[in-house]
Amino acid sequence: MRSELATKTKLAAPKIYSLVLENVYALREGLELLENIADGVFSAVPAAIEPHRAGSHLRHCLEFYECFLDGMRNGVIDYDARRRDTLVEHDRLVAILRTADIVDRLLDCHYPEYDAPIEVRSEDDGGVAWTESTVGRELKFLRSHTIHHYALMAITLRLQGVDVPSEFGVSTATLRHRAEVQ
Fold first, then answer.
1. Total count of domains within the chain
2. CATH value at residue 149
3. Which long-range contacts (CB under 8 A, 24 or more apart) does 143-150 make?
4. Residue 40 and which of 58, 113, 129, 171 are 20 to 30 A apart at CA?
């Protein structure tokens, strides 16, 4: 399904729209998982990996998307300006609603060109640095960042006995490689 989405969007839409759809697809994978797990496991902290919980990884990802979308309005992305709203990591319904809202915002946002420059704030070694990036690069980063945290969510949930799809938290490149070697 992922490769079908990528193929269709590359042929039918500009490069930026393809990246937006890849992010939307990833977020919808998260929504599907959220809709199929119990409230308790979403916010539980398995003893083996304290203090990690599936909800905290999802909250972290969603807040990066919110910072990105806010940055699209003002031309400056500040990933350190996250709300750190713990309600999202403890309440599955709040997480579902927040994820759906971000999907809508991603689809409704007016994007500049793929290589349009944008300033990004990040912390490094105790200091704050502003770096020039591009909108396309940040969309790629968001997708990769989300898949990385989905992998951590999958581990957290599997430790609680939840059956998580084997492709959840696995990059498209890895899935493609697996398909080629089988």
1. 1
2. 1.20.120.450
3. 143/19, 143/22, 143/23, 143/26, 144/171, 145/61, 145/64, 146/23, 146/26, 146/27, 146/30, 146/61, 146/64, 147/26, 147/171, 149/57, 149/58, 149/60, 149/61, 150/26, 150/29, 150/30, 150/57, 150/61
4. 171
